[in-house]
Every structure is written in structure tokens, then in C-alpha cells.
Amino acid sequence: MAVTEEVRAARDAKLDELHERLTGAVEMLVTGQDWARALAFAARFRSRSFNNMLLIWIQHEAAFGAGRVPEPMPSYVAGYRQWQQLGRQVEKGQSGYMIFAPVTGRFASSTPADASSWRRLDPREKPHPGEVVRSRMVGARPAYVWDVSQTAGDPIPEPPAPTLLEGEAPSGLWDGLAAQVAAAGFTLLRVPHEGMIHGANGMTGWGARQVAVRENIDPAAQVKTLAHELAHVLMHDPDDEDARQHRGIGEVEAESVALMIGAAHGMDTTGYTIPYVSTWAARVDGRDPVQVVQATGERVRKTALGILDGLDTVQIANGTPPGLIRETAAPERSSRASAPMPERQTVTEPVMVGRGL
Ligand SMILES: [Zn+2]
User: Fold this and answer.
1) Per-position DSSP letters for 8-44, written without gaps between them
2) CA of 317 to the centre of ligand 1 (A)
3) Angle value at C-alpha 310, between 186 and 347, nearest 5 degrees
């Protein structure tokens, strides 16, 4: 059974509305401080795509402004049924925050190395014997999530949160970052003062494969610098063509990753220096600045997430309620085989830039 035209039209209208809201949210990121605030928020919701993070942020702010939620910041968001799984119920009158959920399709091939050999399977079609099957994102649908404050029921267990004094580095963070620098094949040096590294707090040298961080700043600033240099190491290899294309905004990316790493450890995020969004987002040739901002946000988020996942440190929650296991993708049949579209559904993350799905 196919989705009726009417249902499809309604879904497309909602997707258009979402894209519009998202563009509006991106365009509101004007100053470096706006960007920094968005990244601090992204650190709290790092399990969500950059786009969905922005959508959750603006819709929660609107709900707070309208007096529908008690706190300016959401803490955990999840889908309607996910809250039910956790013994909680969305309260009457609370409308959810609309975000993008991916729709995946199944593809089969008997010669997987040949990119042109993959064919898309119909929802119930079985692959031929010997064929490999992979799922891939083929589109998006609107889905809804609610903040915990819009639900009632069983208490949510609070995981331990990091606490820090001014200037203090989070426990284990330096060592964890240093291990990742070493794993990338770089030697880490601590230099006595900035005079040895051209007046900078830190430096990454590709020729010598060295990362240097100066020691005459407080431990928090040192660890922040190390996170910045690690981001360069992971993202900006000058021999990598993809990295070369991003070089113009390399400093923004490195500082942004460092900010997210710091924020995920409860560090103060006011000391990061990020220029006006328009000065770096306009620089990438031929691309709409809104798309550059989205792509940069997603690259930063993915890098920060990879670093954070490799650390053995106490981190703030990632926006998904404790105890919830999220699906990795919504199967195609949920949008094609049944009508109407389930709106209160498990929500997962598409990675999208602009309108390109
Ligand atoms: Zn740098």
C-alpha cells in the first residue's frame, strides 16, 4: 500500500516548514557569541544532528517564552513512545518539537565494491542469493520530540555531572586528549611560554608531526588549547583534499570543537574566540552561507563526538534520557507501507545540509 498523495503532500508541507524554520535559526547565528552559544547547546544535545539541535533549541525557546515549559534550557528530549518506554507520558496540551527523522532505503548488490551495481529494494523485496544488503538514508520525514519537562511519570535517574572550579581542568581530560594526539601519530610537547610558538597558546606542526602547548597558562586554558590542536590534527591534514577545502574556516572549526569538548565537561565557554559568522561562512566558494554554517556545525559536532566518545571522563548528559536505547534509523516501510504517517515515532538523526537529502 502506497502513501496517499494527500499524506505525502502534508508531509512535504511539514518538511518545507521545517527547512524554513531551520534556515531562520541558522540566520540568527550572527556574532561569534551566537555561534558559541549554539555550540554550547550542541554539546548538551550532541546526540542530535546540528540541524535538529537548532530546531530543538528554537522551539524550546518559543515554548519557554509562551510559558509552556519551566526552564529556558531543555535537558532530555525524546519521542512520544520513547517517553512511554521510560514510564513517562507527554502531558496534555504539550506540543512536541518538530525535527527531521531519516527515512532509509535498502539497497542490494552482488558486487558491493562496484558503486553502480547497487539496486534499491522495494520495502518487502528479498535480495537475491549472494547479494549484500545495506541501508542508506534516502530522505527525511518530520518527527516530534518532547522535553522531559513536558512529560510526567517515573523519575529520570540523574547521571553524575562534572563540577569544576575556575581555571581547573576536568579530571582525566588532558591525558585523554594527549592519548588521542599520540594515537594520531603526533608528539606532544609542553613549552614554557608563548615566545617559543610564535606567541600562540598552542601549535600543530604537520612537517614534524608535533603538537605544542604552552605551560604558562592555567590548566583549563591548557586543556582547551590541547583540544583545539587535536581538532586540527584530526580535521586539517594539509595533504587531505577534503581538509584543504575547509582550510579557510579551520580556526573556527578547531576552536568550535574545543568549545564543545569543554562544554561537555562543564567548563566555562565564555573564553573562546570565534569571529562573526558572516566573516567565515561567506568565504567558501559558491556555497550558500546558510549551508556553510550547517556543514561546519555538523563537521564540528562529529569531530567533537568522536573525541568525546574516546575519552574516559565524566561528561554532561548528551540530551538522550538515561536508559533509552535509540534506534539508528527509521525503516522505509514506516513511511511507505502504511498511511497515515506515524508522527509520534522513534526519532533518529539525519545528516542534512540545506535541502540536499
Ligand atoms: Zn588553531
Assistant:
1) HHHHHHHHHHHHHHHHHHHHT--SHHHHHHHHHHHHH
2) 27
3) 135
Q: What is the edge-to-edge ordering of all strands in the sheet holding 187-191?
A: 187-191, 210-214, 202-205
173-309 is a CATH 1.20.1260 domain = no
Q: How far is the CA of 309 from the centre of ligand 1 (A)?
A: 22
Domain layout of the chain by residue ranges:
5-159+317-336, 173-309
Ligand 1 mean position to 250 CA, how many Å? 7
What is the full per-residue pLDDT of the chain (357 aa) written as tens digits?
466 889 889 989 999 999 999 999 999 999 999 999 999 999 999 999 999 999 999 999 999 999 999 999 999 999 999 999 999 999 999 999 999 999 989 999 999 999 889 999 998 899 999 999 998 888 899 999 999 999 999 999 887 788 888 889 999 999 999 999 999 999 999 998 888 888 889 999 999 999 999 999 999 999 999 999 999 999 998 887 776 666 678 999 999 999 999 999 999 888 788 899 988 887 566 788 999 999 999 999 999 999 999 999 999 999 999 988 765 444 444 333 333 333 333 334 444 333 323
- C-alpha of residue 207 to centroid of ligand 1, in Å: 16
Q: Ligand 1 center to residue 329 CA distance, Å?
A: 35
How many A from CA of 270 to the centre of ligand 1?
18
CA-wise closest residue to 258 among 208, 308, 204:
308
Distance 259 CA to ligand 1 centre (A): 13
Q: What does the block give as the cell for 256?
A: 568550535
Residue entry with cell 518538530: 98
